[in-house]
């Protein structure tokens, strides 16, 4: 029997869970911004590339934390305050 038999990698959300959906949309928006920054970095002047790279890293970190916040909300139905503070400190 596998260790992960009862472990779900993605928490299930109810179809009317607007808070969880908001975390999901925030995560996808941050991931899209990260992709934009990373993929368009070479199209910027050399002096702006470090700023674009840092912007991509910040939005990627935020996307990961929003994903964790969505899962925490879906499982516990509580505000993921800890993840918010970690996200604010890192970004």
Q: What does this 3D model show about the protein?
A:
The chain has one domain. The radius of gyration is 16 Å and the shape is elongated. With 91 residues, the protein is an all-alpha fold. Helix content is 67%, strand content 0%. Helix 1 (18-40) runs antiparallel to helix 2 (49-76) and helix 2 runs antiparallel to helix 3.
Cα end-to-end separation: 40 Å
Number of strands: 0
Radius of gyration over all CA atoms, rounded: 16 Å
Provide mean pLDDT, rounded: 87
Low-confidence stretches: 1-7
Beta-strand residue fraction: under 5%
> Helix amount, in percent?
55-70%
Condensed summary:
The chain has 91 residues and is mainly alpha-helical. The protein has three helices and no strands. The protein is elongated.
Main features:
91 residues, mainly alpha, 3 helices, disordered N terminus
Per-chain topology:
Layout: H1 18-40, H2 49-76, H3 81-90
